[in-house]
Amino acid sequence: MIELEVDLGERNYPIYIGEGLLSDSSLYEPYIAGRKVMIVTNETVGPLYEQQVRHALASYEVDTVVLPDGEQYKNWETLNLIFDGLLEKAHSRKTTIVALGGGVVGDMAGFAAASYQRGIDFIQVPTTLLSQVDSSVGGKTAINHPLGKNMIGAFYQPKAVIIDTLTLQTLPPQEVSAGIAEIIKYGLIRESDFFIWLEKNIQGIKGLDSDVLTYAIKTSCACKAEIVEADEKEGGLRAILNLGHTFGHAIETHKGYGSWLHGEAVASGMLMAAELSHLEGWLSVEDVDRIRAILVDSDLPVLGPEGMLINDYHRLMSVDKKVMDGTLRLVLMKGIGDAVVTSSFSSENLNTVLSK
Amino acid sequence: MIELEVDLGERNYPIYIGEGLLSDSSLYEPYIAGRKVMIVTNETVGPLYEQQVRHALASYEVDTVVLPDGEQYKNWETLNLIFDGLLEKAHSRKTTIVALGGGVVGDMAGFAAASYQRGIDFIQVPTTLLSQVDSSVGGKTAINHPLGKNMIGAFYQPKAVIIDTLTLQTLPPQEVSAGIAEIIKYGLIRESDFFIWLEKNIQGIKGLDSDVLTYAIKTSCACKAEIVEADEKEGGLRAILNLGHTFGHAIETHKGYGSWLHGEAVASGMLMAAELSHLEGWLSVEDVDRIRAILVDSDLPVLGPEGMLINDYHRLMSVDKKVMDGTLRLVLMKGIGDAVVTSSFSSENLNTVLSK
Q1: In which domain, by residue range, is B152 found?
Q2: Is residue B37 less than 8 Å (CB to CB) from chain A?
């Protein structure tokens, strides 16, 4: 088992990575303060893994809320199912929520934990590659609004993140690819050596090779932890984690949540960012080609949705959380492994990229 | 103008109290970081005071969201009107919300500020006596759930609280009384001298005498600030601010939000707490009589709703935020000005009080 630490002072927490951790009581117990636990999962993950988690939590009173599966349910109605469950079973401020599932479950269970009785403890148990390498670490929780993704939420850190890599064995290939998109992101924004390693090991990740996977997850979590430690509430640096996300969120919102997987939308958004960085003279054509190649190798899209117009992008990107007093800011690359948040790009170049 | 400070380190903020502050630009400007402001008000308060606030904010781009008026609207649907307004007008993370209204507006605008894009700035401009002496200070924000009051929310501090006592001149007498309930609360939990002063000055408050009102508001805010400074997130001491609230919230939920005013429910809840404290041998019958008398003088109820049964109370109180691992805790009094949070009372005595 690998243990990392997210060092946030009084909000410190560990990330455990390994095989079979789901059913290890000793990983949960130090982080549960009361007698009661609420497992929040979904209709896909629950049948596969809920019993293992319940087994690990045998010494607590455990209730479960099962949510529908999919980004299109990451909204208030579904969030309310968690509040209903907590109140119907009279869960108090001492209750701990265990988020068992992918990014949608983690984001919603985390926001429910942030808001229920103004804040209760929660533990992230991510079961998809995307949530294991990205969304379960760092305390961003949210639901979507019809006009914008992740617009309503909180910065709220978990007490622990328990990553059982065996859960990836049941993950559909399309979801593995979506997770790879966020792994590639770390290489692009900050870790050029890791990017080179990824260029050689994409097949190993796709094939769920245990050692390769574990190294990719560990490196991703460590990179994310470092950035979050430096800038927990996204005052500056943390925004680079949003490479490809301004384009990607626009795509997800435009297509209707759940139509494109988040990782897929981010993949084509990252290539847009690369192409714009090239047009601005910052990234060589060879590097753009390398980025396109690794995304294609990962079975990820490198173009936006057909029929999505420049105006669709502009309208949806105008509410991006990085906008400051009306000015759009994007994460672009000065090189592979060197991302910057900037508003200094020409709108002509942006439109060229968006019209591809 | 009186200025108090809520000392919470990096979350420090001032409370300004005086006549005509609503239209004083210089009180807002230091607390607005961007170019845009969203005023959140309701259909009753907006027509009376929105123009004054807009006048003070003439150098910003100002939008307004007008909510329906009443506790029955303190729910997700109404909260969403704020998010809709912010997103339709493309408000960014740099926007400041100005909460113009009573406790319901402040609680919802504050929770919207806590959650919009994971947190934006807000300023409290309370226009009712209850919100001026209590809910606008201390950073408790929330909406109601059908199964419990204030169950979904955040601890999220405003950047400033601007209390214009002239707004009380348009307040209906019933709402003045509701505010007095929370003022009396400070005397009961911690300020015995203030309680004695209140016994002599209730008529002055009811009559909206400027000096008397200002002293009552200042003393209330100072007491609240002191308690919040000592225990921002209600780990212990802060819970004494909930004197009468466990009973009161049960009454409000049972009757349907908006049927009893919050201050009215708290008033009868405080007398229940006094009576239980007496049955436990902590409070003399004379003190219970003084408490009853000042509530009656304030035109506040001293009994729960007719037809509300012991079981109704128990069911609704079981989700109170002070419950710990299944055990109900109440704020009781060892004397006037000396409140404690305790679970050591007999259920027989509790039932005696509830069955009155």
Answers
A1: 2-170
A2: no
The Cα B202–Cα B240 span in angstroms is: 23
B9 interfaces chain A, CB cutoff of 8 Å: no
**Minimal-distance CA residue of chain A relative to B319:** A90
Same domain (yes/no): A135, A252 = no
Whether A119 has its CB under 8 Å from any CB of chain B: the answer is yes
Q: Which residues of A touch B148 (CB under 8 A)?
A: 87
CA distance A34 to chain B (A): 7
Quote the tokens at residue A98. Answer: 């265990």
A87 touches chain B (CB under 8 A): yes
B233: chain A residues, CB-CB within 8 Å: 118-119
Angstroms from B103 CA to nearest CA on chain A? 17
**Best interface-test mutation with A: which of B11, B115, B143 has the largest number of A CBs within 10 A?**
B115
Select from B39, B117, B97, B109 the least CA-distant residue to A323.
B117
CATH at residue A72? 3.40.50.1970
Of A90, A155, A319, the CB nearest to B118: A155
pLDDT at A98: 98
- Centre a 10 Å sphere on the Cβ of residue B305 and count the other Cβ atoms it contains: 15
Q: What is the pLDDT tens value at each position of chain B, 356 positions in all?
A: 999 999 999 999 999 999 999 999 999 999 999 999 999 999 999 999 999 999 999 999 999 999 999 999 999 999 999 999 999 999 999 999 999 999 999 999 999 999 999 999 999 999 999 999 999 999 999 999 999 999 999 999 999 999 999 999 999 999 999 999 999 999 999 999 999 999 999 999 999 999 999 999 999 999 999 999 999 999 999 999 999 999 999 999 999 999 999 999 999 999 999 999 999 999 999 999 999 999 999 999 999 999 999 999 999 999 888 888 789 999 999 999 999 999 999 999 999 999 98
A188 and A214 in a single domain? The answer is: yes
Crossing angle of helices A173-189 and A192-206, in 10° steps, is: 170
Q: Does B196 touch chain A (CB under 8 A)?
A: no
Residues of A with catalytic annotation? 118, 140, 182, 224, 234, 238, 242, 245, 249, 262
CA distance A324 to chain B (A): 6
Whether residues B63 and B103 fall in one domain: yes
CATH of residue A307:
1.20.1090.10
B247 plus B279 within the same structural domain: yes
> A150: nearest CA in chain B?
B117
pLDDT at A61: 97
> What are the CA-CA distances from residue A171 to residues A176, A179, A180 (Å)?
7, 10, 13
B267/chain A closest Cα distance in angstroms: 23
State pLDDT tens for residues A120-149: 999 999 999 999 999 999 999 999 999 999
A257 with A318, same domain: the answer is yes
| pTM score, whole prediction | 0.95
Contact A291, A278 (CB under 8 A): no
Residue at which a domain ends, from B117, B151, B170: B170
Instruction: Looking at the structure, tell me whether residues B11 and B156 fall in a common domain.
Output: yes
Of B170, B187, B205, the residue that ends a domain is B170
Chain A interface includes B118 (CB < 8 A): yes
Measured between alpha carbons, how far is B247 from A320 in angstroms, rounded to an integer? 44
CA dihedral B222, B268, B145, A116 (to 10 degrees): 50
Residues A153 and A181 in one domain: no
Tell me the chain A residues in contact with residue B323 when contact means C-beta distances shorter than 8 Å: 90, 92-93
- Are A79 and A196 members of one domain? no
Question: CB burial class (10 A; 0-12, 13-18, 19+) of residue B76?
Answer: middle
Is the pLDDT at A324 greater than 90, yes or no? no
Beta strands in A75-233 (DSSP E): 96-101, 121-126, 140-145, 148-155, 160-164
Q: How many domains does chain A have?
A: 2
Written as one letter, the residue type at B343 is: S
